Amino acid sequence: MASSQTIRVNLAERSYDILIGSGTLDVFPQFMADRNSSTHVVIITDSNVDDLYADALGDSLTEQGYEVQMMVVDAGEESKSADAAIDLWETMLAEGADRGSVVAAVGGGVVGDLAGFVAATFARGLAFVQVPTTLLAQVDSSVGGKVGINLSEAKNMVGAFWQPMGVLVDVNVLGTLPAKEFAAGMAEVVKYGVIMDLDFFEYLEQNVDGINARDPEVMQKVVERCCQLKAEVVEADEREESGRRAILNYGHTFAHAFEAATEYGQLLHGEAVSMGMVCESRLAERIGLIDAAATERQVKLLEALSLPITPPELDPEEVYRLMWHDKKVADGKINFVLPTKIGETTLTSDVKSRDVLAVLEG
Ligand SMILES: NC(=O)c1ccc[n+]([C@@H]2O[C@H](COP(=O)([O-])OP(=O)(O)OC[C@H]3O[C@@H](n4cnc5c(N)ncnc54)[C@H](O)[C@@H]3O)[C@@H](O)[C@H]2O)c1
Ligand SMILES: O=C(O)C(=O)C[C@@H](O)[C@H](O)[C@H](O)COP(=O)(O)O
Ligand SMILES: [Zn+2]
């Protein structure tokens, strides 16, 4: 294993490390042994990641004397469903998983959210680790403990806060990621810059070529910075109670409605977030919170990273209706995370429906 860095997520007895480096998959058995004494590991992965990485990780555990149960779901957002969770629970039971088993999520955000949800609920809760294999999962979904599944009208509507025992990030796996998936991960990366780190946003602007070429040194820095920022936010507000964690939802009020309106089949989550951030920045402009130049700066960076910024043709009223399923709705109002400048956001419910509809109408 080449150089690596460890970022600690401090959450009292739920604290854990994120190990980030090149070639870290080689230490998977040791990583597991250091965190739990169980010898029964349930690996949950998807139909693409199975052959690419999960099988080999399973073999490396078997060689060390572990009993491994391998479970493969169909690749794609459709697997973040109640049906998929039921299949996993039933199979785990049939094949001997018990309270002492450990779940390892090996894959992107879909696998991480689904496997984490199954871990949180099977036998009232199993220990689990995250081995994120997409950029999006490495910079965002594997950290912070939000796990869950979708309902047809509401993204991530059924779930839990269930922290992993550890997160093992190998940036080498980004090499096999399709271009569209890599770009989708960059949307969440840009999000961190807009919500809380102007210097990081500028670093991204200055390193677009290195990012698009997936330069290992640049990508190691990008993943590390995002994980540091997410760890800080999660440590401050683990269960999204004080409002601090809500900043990670920038772009998501619109994004989740776009995903539900297109039945989770047309847009990647990161693509929807890219469109959602532009919409929410335009909404902030309309109510006088930010200047147009700051939105254009986001548009320019997102486009340079090959991300879409214009939502598909959808009925604005229907998208607005779906926004009411957002988990930030409280006291009959939608709370929006809106940028006030690059590097700063505010949480506000003081938004008129006509402004939201005007943004959706374009
Ligand atoms: N829990 C959280 O905090 C959080 C944060 C952000 C996003 N999410 C969720 O994450 C999901 C999106 O995750 P995603 O973008 O990783 O999508 P994904 O899990 O569907 O993975 C994208 C695609 O890449 C493939 N893949 C994965 N790793 C690969 C690799 N190394 N090489 C080649 N192909 C690979 C997968 O099989 C899949 O086809 C959404 O459901 C979103 O809601 C959750
Ligand atoms: O970790 C968080 O908190 C986030 O909001 C990160 C988001 O990128 C992610 O998409 C999350 O799953 C959205 O959460 P939700 O509570 O709006 O479903
Ligand atoms: Zn997201």
TrEMBL record:
Q: Does the keyword Transcription regulation apply?
A: no
Compartment(s) of residence: Cytoplasm
Q: What is its EC number?
A: 4.2.3.4
Residues forming the 3-dehydroquinate synthase N-terminal domain are 71-183
- Care to name a GO molecular-function term for this sequence? metal ion binding
Q: Which residues form the 3-dehydroquinate synthase C-terminal domain?
A: 185-329
Is Transport tagged as a keyword?
A: no
Summary of the function given for this chain in its UniProt record: Catalyzes the conversion of 3-deoxy-D-arabino-heptulosonate 7-phosphate (DAHP) to dehydroquinate (DHQ).
SUPFAM superfamilies registered for this protein in UniProt: Dehydroquinate synthase-like
Q: What protein name does the entry list?
A: 3-dehydroquinate synthase
Q: Which UniProt keywords apply?
A: Amino-acid biosynthesis, Aromatic amino acid biosynthesis, Cobalt, Cytoplasm, Lyase, Metal-binding, NAD, Nucleotide-binding, Zinc
Q: Please share the entry's free-text remark on the cofactor.
A: Binds 1 divalent metal cation per subunit. Can use either Co(2+) or Zn(2+).
Instruction: Tell me which cofactor or cofactors this protein depends on.
Output: Co(2+); Zn(2+); NAD(+)
GO CC, any one term? cytoplasm
Q: Where is it predominantly found?
A: cytoplasm
The residues that hold NAD(+) are 109-113, 133-134, 146, 155
Regarding protein family, the annotation reads: Belongs to the sugar phosphate cyclases superfamily. Dehydroquinate synthase family.
Q: Which GO terms describe its biological process?
A: amino acid biosynthetic process; aromatic amino acid family biosynthetic process; chorismate biosynthetic process
Instruction: Output the superkingdom of the source species.
Output: Bacteria
